Structure formats: structure tokens, C-alpha cells
Amino acid sequence: MSQIVKTILLSGTTAFIAFSLIQFSDQTFEASIRGLSIWWEVVFPSLLPFFITAELLISFGVVKFIGVLFEPIMRPLFNIPGVGSFGWIMGMASGYPTGAKIASRLREEKQLTQIEAERLVSFTNASSPLFIFAAVSVGFFHDTKLGILLAACHYISNAFVGICMRFYGKNKEKQDMMRREVRGRVSIVKAFKDMHETRLMDNRPLGEILGDAVLHSVKTLVMVGGFIILFSVLTKLFFLTGISTFISVFFQHILQLFSMSPEFGLPLLSGLFEITIGAQSISGITSDTLLTKAILVSFILGFNGLSVQAQVASILAKTDIRFAPYFFARILHGMIAAILTIVLYKPLYLNKQAFDSDHIAVSQAVHENIWNMVLEKIITYGPIITIISLGISIIIIAIRLNAAK
């Protein structure tokens, strides 16, 4: 009976979306173009170098080297092997869904158990500094000092989530005694030895390793682009059909319980679907304080948005890593980030603003110019990088198909 209901629900939803696409074809086309532009100009060129580098570092054993050195830190804090430090750092530097990509690769390489991989995924999918400072603080709020507050709350709460998730699956997981013994025998010599052994275990020639790194990275980013376009269209459809307005009434009542303006109901709902749209909508509300806006933006940054969560779910689907722990961690991350925003708003924003009052115009202009310049460079050269990368991938596939004949 449940399967019949599921079939009716899925088919009915798909039919409704198809009908809405036909009815609002012009608006949905604009939404799809917007999603494609974001992926084409920013997401693909900014994430591709990180993805390829991660693939190569894993193949050459460098991640294993890092893992041995960071074992004494990662195991006590997060109850995961030292290799998890690579995913954590890369996830913060490049943004989502890099953390999920690296965790899935480490799981495929058997460097993590299922439980350890689920712990790692739960706190390695963070917003990149480029997005927080350039897009949100400068682009939407025109205030670089707000970026300092948002970034501090986002990354500190991310670490808290990792510490909380260290207890996840502890009763089910059987600890390896050999792994426990490694903690006390960490050395550079052993790290180098493990790195060398890992590289020797990969029998692929250098050209094949490079080709696989490019193909795997491009394939993942094409999937990411599909989800960005899909959720851009869905968000627009929900707004056009009135579904967003209907659901936002529920969020308005919740916001009123916390003494927040009900005007944030629709922007908050949009942010739960797609972060960029939500943050931009929240920044445009003028009926409440900046603190309220910062709290809501911190929450949706930690929640990741359903668009990013769908990307992560697709990456994890190829492994035995379950999605539920990641989803729970997203709610936890959003809540902790919102609370930290309240706590740190005065010391990191108001006090800093008063301290820098004599130089605020000059320093803020300099910081805004730097972040704007970085974003403009990516947007300018991003499409070229995307075209070249896709062309290289097609050439590699063609060469391998000819070699297989």
C-alpha cells in the first residue's frame, strides 16, 4: 500500500511540475538561464581545481601522508582518522559539495569506515570564504565586517557539529586495535612510508591518473550544475504557483515566536531551498535589524539549502554513506550558527565597527574592492575555463573509446 502511495505521489508531483513548466515557460526559462549562469561562470571554474587536486592527492598518497600526521588531532576531536583533515580543510576552502566528494572518495579507497565517512560528511560541507565575503556580505549587504561575523559563526559552529557527531555510531562501530596503537607512533618517516605504499598500490600510469582525475571532477560538476538549474527552476515555480507563499505562512508564525518580522517568512523558505536566493531576499528586507538578518543568513548557510543537499545525496548515493546523519547535522549546524551569531554580534561586529570608526570608509572600500575583483575575475574567465575543461573531457573520452576498440 505504501509503495502505491509513493508511486502516486511521485508521478503526481512530476506531472504537476511538467504542467507548470508549460504554463510558465518564459519565467522558468529565465530561471534555468540564471542557474546555468551561476554554474557556468562561478561554480564550475571555482570548484574544478579543488576537485582535480583532491583526486591527484588521494591517488599519489599525499592524503595518507597528511592523515598519519593529523591522526592525533582528528581522532580525539572528531573520532575520525587523520585523512579526514584533508576533507575538512578542502571543504572549508572551496565550499560545498567538496567535502562530500572527498569523503566518498576516501570511503571508496577504504581509508574510512562507513560510520567515519558519515561523521566526516556531516561537518565538511561548508560555505567557501569567497561566497560568504564576496557574494553575501559585499554583494548583498555591502558590508565586509558582516562577512567576518558570518564566517566566524559558520566555521566555529561547523567544528562544534563535528565534535557533536563524534559520538554518532559509537556503539555500533567496532574500533580497530591496530588503529588505536598508531596514535602513539606518529612520525614523518611513517607518514612518508604510508604515502609511498599508497602510491605503489595504484597501478595506473600517470596519464590515466590525470585523465581519471579530470573526468571524475567534470562528471561531478556537471551533476552539480544540473541540480543548480533544477532548484532554480523549482524555486521559481513554487513562487509562481503560490506554493511558496502558502508554506511561508508557517514560517511566519515561527518567526513571530522569536520576535522576528513575519516578512522574513518567504525569504527564509527560499533560503531553505537555495542559499543565494534566500540570502539576497533577506538582505532586501528593511523592517528589521541587521542582527535578525545575520541570524537568518547564518542559519541557512549552515543548513546548506535543499539544492546543495540534493547534490550531496547524489554524490553519496554511489557509496554506502547514509544521507540521514548529514541532514541531521545540517539542522544542528544552522541552529548553532544562529546562536553564535547572537553571542558574537557585539564583539565581532559592533565593537569592531566602533574600534575601526576612524578608518572604516577606507578599510571597507579596500576589502570590498579585493573581494569584488576576485569575483569579477572568476566571472570573466570562468566560461573560458568551463569550455576548455569540457573540451578536454570529451577528448579524453574519445581517445579511450578508440583505444578500447
TrEMBL record:
It comes from the Bacteria. The chain crosses the membrane at residues 48-70, 120-141, 147-169, 237-255, 294-316, 323-345, 378-399. The gene is ylbJ. Pfam families: Gate. Keywords: Membrane, Transmembrane, Transmembrane helix. Residues 42-139 form the Nucleoside transporter/FeoB GTPase Gate domain. This is Sporulation integral membrane protein YlbJ. The keyword Transmembrane helix applies.
